[in-house]
Write a structure and sequence with these properties.
Alpha-Beta Plaits, 12 helices, binds adenosine-5'-diphosphate, binds ligand LJ64HWYM, alpha+beta, seven-stranded mixed beta sheet, Ribosomal Protein S5, domain 2, kinase, 2 domains, four-stranded antiparallel beta sheet, nucleotide-binding
C-alpha cells in the first residue's frame, strides 16, 4: 500500500441543553482535527512507533505517547478488537485542538470519536456509523456527546437495554477497555479486548432553526465531568422527573421552529435533574441563568449549563454580545473570569 494522508475533523458538543441530561447533544463549530500521515514502509524495516504532535487547547497537558493519549488508545482498542496488534510503523499524527478541556464542550467525547475514526481508517475496517458508535460507547458511557460529535446537529439518543451477556460485555471497567498499553509490553499484552455488543446506542436528529446561534460563556477553570457527575443524586422525585420530561418533549420540537419562540424555549430549557446539584461547583451559575432572560436580553431564547459545565450555553437569535458581557459581569462578582465564543450548529465528524 502506498503512503496515505487523511484528515479527521470532529466537532465540539454541548450536551443536555437543560432538561435532556444524558439524552440530547448539539454539535458546535469548534474542532478537534487530526492530520494523519501513514508512510509506505515495507515490513522488513524495523518498527517505528507513532509520532504524535499536538497544538492548541490542552497542548501542555496531553500525553504525546500514543500508548497513553486518549485518542490513540481508543484507536488501538478498535484495531485490537479486529486482530490488528499495533499501529502501523512510522505513523505521524498532528493533532490540532480548538475544544477546551474540562469545560463542558465535549473535549473527551471528541477525542473518543476521533480515536474510533482513526482506528477505523488505519485498519481499513469500513465500520458503519452504528458500529463506530458502539465502540465509542464502550469508552464514554453517556451517549449525548459522542452521538452528536459523530453524526452532527441536534441529536437525541438512548442506550438499548442489553441482555445479560451483552450487559456484562458493556460493563467492563474502562481500564480494561483502554489499558495504557506500555510501549515495551510483551506481544500478547492487551490483546483480545472486550468487543462492544452490537447496537448499543440509537439516535434521532431533530430539526434545528438556522436562525439560532450558541453563545458559549466559558469560565477560566476546569471541572472534570467525573467530578460533576459525583454530586448528582442516584434517585429523583416523580415531580422533578416530570418537570424535565415535560420540558424536553417541548424543547426538541421548539428549537426546530422558525421563528423560534423565546417564551416557549426559555421555560423549556429549565432543569431539575443536574443543574441544581452542580451549582455548588460553579459559582455564579444560578445568578447568570436567572438574570439573563428574554425580557432583559432581547434575542435570547434560553440559557443552560453546557454538558457538565462550567460553560454556560445561551441560545439566541441576536443580542449575543450583551448576553455574554452581562454574564461576564455577573461571574466577575464571584471572582470568575470568562471567555466567550459565538458558535453555530454544525454537521458531524468528517474523514477526508
Ligand atoms: N484531544 C484530546 N486528546 C487527549 N485527551 C483529551 C483530549 N480532549 C480531552 N481529553 C481528555 O479528556 C479530559 C476532559 O474530559 P472531561 O472531564 O469529560 O471534560 P469535557 O467536558 O471537556 O469533555 C481532559 O482532561 C483530557 O484528559
Ligand atoms: N450528560 C453528561 C454530559 C457531559 O458533557 P461534557 O461535555 O461535560 O463532557 C453530563 O451532564 O454529565
Amino acid at each position: 500500500m502506498g503512503a496515505r494522508k487523511f484528515t479527521i475533523k470532529v466537532p465540539a458538543t454541548s450536551a443536555n441543553i437543560g432538561p435532556g441530561f444524558d439524552v440530547v447533544g448539539l454539535s458546535l463549530s469548534l474542532y478537534l482535527t487530526l492530520r494523519v500521515l501513514q508512510p509506505d514502509r515495507s515490513s522488513d524495516q524495523p518498527y517505528i512507533p507513532p509520532l504524535l504532535k499536538y497544538t492548541g487547547e490542552g497542548a501542555e497537558e496531553v500525553p504525546l505517547d500514543a500508548y497513553k493519549n486518549l485518542t490513540t488508545r481508543v484507536a488501538l482498542y478498535v484495531l485490537r478488537c479486529h486482530d490488528i496488534r499495533s499501529f502501523p510503523s512510522t505513523l505521524e499524527i498532528h493533532v490540532d485542538n480548538e475544544i477546551p478541556f474540562g469545560r463542558g464542550l465535549g473535549s473527551s467525547g471528541a477525542a473518543v470519536i476521533a480515536g474510533v475514526l482513526l482506528g477505523n481508517e488505519l485498519g481499513g475496517l469500513k465500520l458503519s456509523k452504528e458500529r463506530l458508535l458502539d465502540f465509542a460507547l464502550m469508552v464514554e458511557r453517556h451517549p449525548d456527546n459522542v452521538t452528536a460529535a459523530l453524526v452532527g446537529g441536534f441529536v437525541g439518543s438512548y442506550l438499548r437495554e442489553l441482555d445479560a451477556a451483552a450487559t456484562e460485555a458493556a460493563s467492563v471497567p474502562l481500564s480494561e477497555v483502554l489499558p495504557e498499553y506500555p510501549p515495551d509490553a510483551g506481544e500478547d499484552w492487551g490483546l483480545n479486548p472486550p468487543l462492544p455488543p452490537l447496537g448499543i446506542g440509537h439516535y434521532v436528529r431533530f430539526g434545528w432553526s438556522e436562525t439560532i446561534k450558541a453563545v458559549a460563556i466559558i469560565p477560566r477553570f476546569e471541572l472534570s465531568t467525573a467530578t460533576a457527575r459525583e454530586v448528582l443524586p442516584l434517585e429523583y422525585s416523580r415531580k422533578d422527573l416530570v418537570f424535565n420530561l415535560q420540558r424536553l418533549a417541548v424543547l426538541t420540537t421548539a428549537l426546530g421552529q422558525s421563528p423560534p419562540d423565546p417564551e416557549l424555549i426559555y421555560e423549556a430549557m429549565k432543569d431539575r435533574v443536574h443543574q441544581p446539584y452542580r451549582k455548588k461547583l460553579i459559582p455564579g451559575l444560578p445568578e447568570v441563568t436567572s438574570a439573563i432572560t428574554p425580557t432583559t436580553h432581547p434575542g435570547l431564547l434560553g440559557i443552560c449549563l453546557s454538558g457538565a459545565g462550567p460553560t454556560i450555553l445561551a441560545l439566541a437569535t441576536h443580542g449575543f454580545e450583551a448576553i455574554a458581557e452581562d454574564a461576564r459581569a455577573i461571574f466577575r462578582k464571584t471572582n470568575v473570569e470568562i471567555d466567550w465564543k459565538l458558535l453555530t450548529v454544525v454537521g458531524g465528524s468528517v474523514v477526508e
